[in-house]
Specification:
heterodimer; A: alpha+beta; ATP Synthase, domain 1; eight-stranded mixed beta sheet; 2 helices; 8 strands; B: alpha/beta; Pyruvate Kinase, Chain: A, domain 1; five-stranded mixed beta sheet; two-stranded antiparallel sheet; 6 helices; 15% strand; elongated
Chain lengths: 137, 298
């Protein structure tokens, strides 16, 4: 029996599908989920790439922050932000990445306390670009 | 004799007004549709959030969080969500009345306000009520989740704050209530008074928890840590949801108000037209009498 994968964001339900395999970016590293996985609860990473396979077809999505619950072959992701890789506007994503880089450099120069937060933003922006690049090539 | 010209002018003026109210109604209708879509697409997240929290509460029994702390004090913070603009019938008045009623019924409590939207702020500022913080123009364009998160952070800060700050005379609220208009349908909005903080204890879904083998539940982070992160997010979600509901309600209320205004304008036009015809008829009758009496005098 395949997994049921569900991604919801505050804005809208992004995805509800069946999947044979899900790899998701949790806070402490990537988690691979196959049917029959033990129940699990974790926070999600600041920004990463989620991928799932359905009948051999791999789909990518960008997810940022939030929580994941795995129970009884249901993978529920409450993401703060999430986009399917095919929906991401690559140019926008690249622009956001450049902005994030500049913000980090500026904060580092000024020794500001925000460096950590900004670096997290940068990581997210990078993951978003990568997700888009990998599907939209 | 009443002035025919004047009545004609008034009819024209009312027709112009009807044109405006009609187009405003159409604008509201299209905005309502969009707002309604957003409300419905945001609901699954809120529901899932409840499920996850409920499930977690069923598995973890010994958690505590400042956000769950029930205090017996008598200080209440009311978050009032009104619109920024008027022309929406009794929408804001109903919300304001709910707050006033709460204040009247709980005279033993010190009530402070946080206002979202201009109308509520203006009303209570004129009456010199204690407004702790105000937000405006959040709902002018599309409602952003970041805005809801910001409000949530501020509120949580106040709720968790130092017991009392003597300098700023800011009190630490013992509970935070949220007053907003829930969107039922285009013509019906319900004023809701919900407790935001402390977060009501979740009735752990015992049955569901038992059905799963709770013993081998893996927590990547400690349950307490996850809970600590989930609870603020839950408050944010509630505020976000309320903002969306409130915007949809506002447009619904405005549409209804503009609809009845347009209809009322139609009635006024009919009355004035009747009046105008009467005056015209009277003038004609008068002229005929003059002609006839002039002819018979010869």
């Amino acid at each position: 029996m395949p997994l049921t994968l569900e991604i919801v964001t505050p804005e809208r339900p992004l995805l509800a599908t069946e999947a044979d395999e899900v790899v998701l970016p949790a806070l402490d590293g990537e988690i691979g989920v196959l049917p029959g996985h033990a129940p699990l609860m974790s926070q999600m990473s600041v920004g990463g790439i989620l991928s799932y396979k359905n009948a051999g077809q791999e789909t990518l999505a960008f997810v940022s922050q939030g929580f994941v619950e795995i129970a009884a072959d249901r993978v529920t992701i409450l993401a703060e932000r999430a986009e399917l890789a095919t929906e991401i506007n690559l140019e926008d994503a690249r622009a956001a990445l450049r902005e994030a880089e500049l913000a980090v450099q500026k904060a580092e120069k000024e020794n500001s306390n925000d460096v950590g937060v900004l670096q997290a933003d940068l990581e997210g922006a990078l993951a978003r670009v990568k997700a888009a690049e990998r599907t939209q090539r | 004799m009443p002035n025919l010209q004047g009545v004609r002018r008034r009819i024209k003026a009312v027709k112009n007004m009807r044109q405006i109210t009609k187009s405003y109604k159409l604008v509201s209708a299209s905005k309502l549709r969009r707002a309604q879509d957003r409300v419905t697409s945001a609901r699954p997240y809120a529901r899932k959030m409840m499920e996850v929290l409920g499930g977690l509460a069923g598995k973890v029994t010994d958690f505590t969080s400042p956000l769950l702390e029930e205090r017996t004090g008598n200080r209440t913070l009311i978050v009032l969500m009104t619109s920024d603009k008027g022309l929406c019938g009794g929408f804001n008045a109903n919300l304001i009345r709910a707050v006033q009623q709460y204040i009247r019924e709980n005279t033993n409590q010190t009530v402070e306000l946080v206002t979202v939207g201009r109308k509520g702020r203006d009303f209570f500022r004129r009456r010199g009520a204690a407004i702790r913080k105000e937000y405006a123009n959040l709902t002018a364009k599309t409602v952003l989740y970041q805005d809801a998160a910001m409000i949530a952070r501020d509120l949580i800060g106040m709720f968790e704050g130092e017991s009392d700050n003597e300098e700023t005379l800011a009190i630490r609220p013992d509970r935070v209530l949220l007053v907003y208009a829930e969107f039922k349908s285009a013509i019906s909005q319900i004023v809701k008074v919900n407790q935001l903080l402390p977060v009501a204890r979740f009735e752990g879904d015992a049955a569901a928890a038992e059905a799963e083998t709770t013993s081998d539940y893996i927590f990547e982070q400690s349950p307490a840590e996850i809970f600590d992160r989930l609870l603020p997010r839950f408050v944010e979600t509630q505020i976000f949801q309320a903002l969306l509901e409130s915007v949809a309600s506002e447009h619904g209320a405005r549409m209804a108000a503009m609809d009845s205004a347009s209809r009322n304008a139609g009635d006024v036009i009919n009355k004035l037209t009747l009046n105008m015809n009467r005056i015209r008829q009277a003038a004609i009758t008068n002229e005929i009498i003059e002609v006839v009496s002039g002819a018979s005098a010869q």
